[in-house]
Amino acid sequence: MTNDNVVFVERRGYLAIVVLNRPEKLNALNKEMWSKLGPIFVDLNKDENVRCVVLRGAGEKALGPGADIKEFELERANSSKASEYGKLMHQAMAAIAGCRHPVIARIQGLCVGGALELATVCDLRIASENSRFGIPVNRLGLVMSHYEMAGLIELVGKSTALEMLFEGRVFDAAEAYSKGLLNKVVPEKNLDNELDAMVERICKGAPLVNRWHKRFVRRIVQGLSSGEPLSEDEIMEGYECFDTHDFQEGYNSFIEKRSPKFHGS
Questions:
Q1: Confidence of residue 73 (pLDDT cuts 50, 70, 90)
Q2: Nearest to 128 by CA among 62, 194, 187, 195
């Protein structure tokens, strides 16, 4: 049985939930899913009404176990086909990383291979205690390419990334947290309540500020690796918040001892 709706978006007010929807395959990633993920995040990036995005898998067993291996014979049988497939993967991961809104990976159960690659390019990762992690590609004779590896190295560093790739182990959430892969680990029964609280705190903040902070952090990380100093325009962008209505609202609400109501302007 095929599923034509392999990736879809749910909207709940300011929140957009992107769902990997192949629960019968534990959300194993196939070409169609990769091809849809990129455009979905490009569209969400443009949406002024979004303040937070959650990436999750359908069902309660997995964000994903990695690639759909049955697809390899047709879609990744040689380097030429694999490179075309890889472009879709890289475009999707770049769209997630480049989305200006805060993006949270909700992880329950398996988060292995390509699913973990997706999680690493999200801004935050919250997982249930029963989650499992790993990149056992060396057992298939496969490499994790440069672009796919970038998010992992940024989170855990070179040595830990190589440990994960060399050993190919699948490990638990406590170890994933200790390695720096996760922001928070919670009991399975509390996962959605903790996620909802995280989303609520983000959405209550000034959306322009959250977007600026995401861009600033990315620029700082890139600048440290490239040695490129901040331009004068980039430095001045750090003060543009003072010209926004959201700053006036935040300031006045503090003086008036009330909760701010930000509009993203």
A1: confident
A2: 187
Q: What is the pLDDT of residues 154-178, one digit of tens each?
A: 999 999 999 999 999 999 999 999 9
172, 61: one domain: yes
CB 132 within 8 A of CB 171: yes
- Rounded Cα distance between 215 and 217, Å, is 6
Contact at 8 Å (CB) between 70 and 25? Answer: no
Count helices and strands in the chain by DSSP H and E runs: 11, 10
Cα torsion 132, 134, 140, 142 to 10°: value is 150
pLDDT digits (tens, 9 = 90+) for 37-63: 999 999 999 999 999 999 999 999 999
Q: Are residues 30 and 138 in the same domain?
A: yes
Give the amino acid at 26. L
Task: Look at the chain and report how many structural domains it folds into.
Answer: 2
Q: For residue 221, give its domain range.
A: 207-255
